[in-house]
Specification:
Layout (H helix, E strand, L loop, with lengths): L5 H21 L12 H8 L8 H9 L2 H11 L13 H8 L1 H17 L10 H21 L5 H10 L2 H9 L4 H5 L9 H9 L3 H12 L3 H9 L14 H16 L16 H5 L7 H19 L7 H19 L16 H5 L7 H16 L3 E8 L4 E8 L3 H6 L3 E3 L5 H9 L3 E3 L4 H10 L4 E8 L2 E9 L9 H28 L13 H12 L3 H4 L3 E7 L2 H8 L1 H18 L5 E6 L2 E6 L4 H21 L11 E7 L7 H17 L5 E3 L3 E2 L1
Parallel strand pairs: 10-11
Antiparallel strand pairs: 1-2, 1-6, 2-3, 4-5, 5-6, 7-9, 7-10, 8-9, 11-12
């Protein structure tokens, strides 16, 4: 970066200083002391696949590590290479197999032995993670070869190391990546945002810090730091857009195939810049995935991992979703330039992105599925807490419920078999008469079979798409299940986009730090509520939340820690509040919630769950906050006719909260019931 822009340099320096400070606070020791990359691996990274890197240079590096040399000899003599006779020296292996193959085998072994710890009971399964890294590395290299990129080996190494920040956090963090995975499903935030809220830094920022400390090549640093979000034009890493795009593309495909870095993380968003850099029409995805499958199978005997082998089906799914990502996510709605890009069901795939109003795009999507797949009925089901069951909220054709079913609903108590599996695992199912439970379910629905697909928003269930042929009795096929899956995925993205759009419209109403409603919105809501009839106010509850000893977080840990504590409390409130209730930041370290249609017992239980979850999260993050407990005191007020204004109700809850403080903090107090 040029030094003629002092403002830009200052910003970069400030950001780097903040990252260094946060990294020191969340890791058990400085990155430079972790010894993550063996000396031999660093030497291998400096060897390039060109004339200046001679056979003897590579042989010398490997042979200085006897254990490594033995493993490389074992690999090259395995069935993967099908050599006519046994190889007994590294030099012979390089001469016969080539520089690239031997260097790759050595890098795999060095990084696996140093980085991966097979702790099967951890949520962050490191063997599963290694499978992801190998897949991304192999596909990145294959794509590089297909696109005639000059150094495919570098792409392989970039794919191998792209998520190294996760391993650093898991093995050396004061709070581990497994700890993060234990709470990630309780948040609506995207992965990068939720990582920052939980750790203070994302895995890409930790990875970037690691690269700088270890002086890794700039191209690798760019891949590790920016494979989720491209660097700005002024960045020194902007010149590595091609490398970033190839690894980001491979990472996306791996995750979409279920080969992600962790089982319960959602598929990442593919940056739009990828399509400007990589022409997917020039890639034979089916052939590439077949080659990667062979690469993965060849390593299975060394790592003991079972790898998938369904390249044709996956290639179809990949291509469909990639087209969708391109056309659906582009702000300019770029039209296809080639007939090759068009898929048979492209209308179904693009419909969710033609509006930001769910009342428009959900019915349109169901209609498109109905027309493209020639099925009888398509419905969007959602959990209705009042009805305690799955209820159809949208359907197509528009007349089917009135003529055929009336209200379509499935009580929670009646859910079993494959439908229950779908809800628990968030996986699509084709339900047939193959078990007693499924037979009962289908009989209840008056159908012979049906397809159910989860609609996910950041790995949380937003609803289900239900499909059947109840009228024509035509059989449903397994391939339809997989062809419809990208549509359900994009409907989830569209629902998230609609939510983000609504939030953008209400930006003036949102507190920028917590992303909850601000004090003005809360007061306006309560003012409007108190102007209604008293019957409307019955069963209304207001709660006041205050973070205990908040000043210590700022004074002892820094203001960033204080901000992170506020974000964590806000995230928990968001995840535990029902639709229709109101939560907001009232100022400083104070939060407020308003619950409707709930009695004092229910309000007390809700407040206690909030308090308990924050306490548990605080224990998990105690090292990060230097031993300070993250707890809250909560005061709860149930509406009484004596409250002339909403200010009276706020005061009652505020007074109860102060009593909670006086009684020892970390507790819930009702305005009229005393302490819990």
């Amino acid at each position: 970066m040029s030094n003629d822009n002092p403002i830009e340099v200052d910003k970069t320096t400030e950001s780097s200083t903040r990252t260094n400070s946060l990294a020191r606070s969340i890791l058990k020791k400085p990155v430079k002391d972790l010894q993550l990359i063996p000396a031999a691996a660093l030497k291998l990274l400096k060897l390039t696949n060109d004339d200046t890197s001679k056979v003897k240079d590579l042989s010398r590096v490997i042979e200085t590590e006897p254990a490594l040399a033995a493993k490389v000899i074992r690999i090259v003599n395995s069935a993967a290479f099908c050599l006519p006779k046994k190889i007994t020296s590294i030099k012979h292996a390089v001469n016969l197999l080539g520089f690239s193959a031997v260097r790759q085998a050595a890098m795999d072994q060095l990084m696996y032995n140093k980085l991966i710890r097979n702790r099967t009971k951890s949520l962050f399964n490191q063997l599963f993670f290694w499978q992801h890294c190998l897949f991304v590395a192999s596909l990145s290299k294959r794509i590089g070869v297909a696109l005639k990129y000059p150094d495919p080996d570098m792409l392989y190494t970039g794919g191998l190391l792209h998520d190294i920040g996760k391993i650093i956090l898991e093995n050396y963090g004061e709070v581990s990546y497994s700890d993060y995975l234990s709470v990630v499903e309780k948040t609506d935030c995207a992965q990068m945002e939720s990582e920052k809220t939980f750790f203070g830094l994302s895995h890409t920022e930790i990875g970037h810090h690691f690269c700088l400390e270890w002086h890794l090549p700039s191209a690798l640093t760019a891949i590790i730091a920016f494979h989720h979000d491209f660097p700005p034009p002024a960045s020194e890493y902007h010149q590595y857009q091609t490398e970033i795009a190839i690894v980001a593309f491979s990472n996306y495909i791996a995750c979409m195939q279920g080969i992600g870095s962790a089982a319960n993380l959602s598929v990442p968003v593919l940056p739009e810049q990828v399509f400007k850099i990589i022409d997917i029409n020039k890639l034979d995805l089916e052939s590439l995935l077949e080659q990667v499958d062979k690469d993965m199978l060849n390593t299975r005997e060394f790592y003991g991992i079972q790898f998938p082998n369904a390249s044709r089906l996956r290639a179809s799914l990949v291509k469909t979703t990639l087209k969708l990502s391109y056309f659906g996510e582009s702000k300019t709605r770029i039209k296809p330039k080639s007939a090759d890009l068009m898929a048979p069901n492209i209308s179904s795939l693009t419909i969710p992105h033609r509006s930001l109003d769910p009342n428009e795009f959900i019915p349109w999507t169901l209609e498109a599925i109905h027309n493209d797949f020639h099925v009888d009925r398509v419905m969007m089901l959602k959990v209705d807490p009042k009805r305690r069951g799955l209820v159809a909220t949208y359907w197509w054709p528009s007349s089917i419920l009135q003529k055929d079913l009336g209200i379509f609903e499935i009580p929670i108590s009646a859910i079993s078999g494959q439908l229950l599996k779908c809800l628990r695992t968030k996986k699509p199912v084709l339900i047939k008469n193959e078990s007693v439970e499924d037979e009962k379910m289908l009989h209840r629905l008056a159908v012979d079979e049906c397809i159910v697909l989860p609609v996910l928003r950041h790995q949380r269930m937003a609803g289900l798409i239900y499909v059947d042929n109840a009228l024509t009795k035509q059989p449903l096929e397994a391939h339809q299940l997989f062809e419809m899956l990208p549509i359900a995925s994009e409907l989830g993205v569209a629902l998230l986009n609609a939510q983000l759009y609504r939030l953008a419209q209400k930006k003036s109403q949102i507190d920028p730090l917590s992303q909850l409603f601000n004090k003005r919105v809360i007061n306006e809501f309560l003012d409007k509520l108190f102007k209604c009839d008293k019957a409307v106010l019955e069963k209304t509850v207001l709660g006041f939340i205050d973070i205990d000893r908040f000043k210590l977080f700022n004074d002892d840990c820094g203001h960033q820690a204080g901000d992170d504590a506020l974000k964590i409390v806000a995230d928990i409130l968001r995840s535990m509040t029902r639709p229709g209730d109101l939560i907001g930041r009232y100022g400083g370290e104070e939060f407020l919630f308003v619950l409707r249609d709930i009695d004092s017992k229910g309000a007390l239980n809700y407040a206690e769950r909030i308090r308990s979850e924050i306490e548990q999260r605080g224990k998990l993050l105690s090292e990060r906050f230097r031993g300070h407990a993250l707890t809250v005191s909560i005061g709860v007020a149930v509406y009484e006719s004596s409250f002339a204004t909403y200010a009276d109700m706020i005061k009652a809850a505020d007074d109860a909260m102060y009593r909670a403080k006086q009684q020892g903090r970390n507790r819930v107090v009702m305005s009229s019931l005393g302490a819990v």
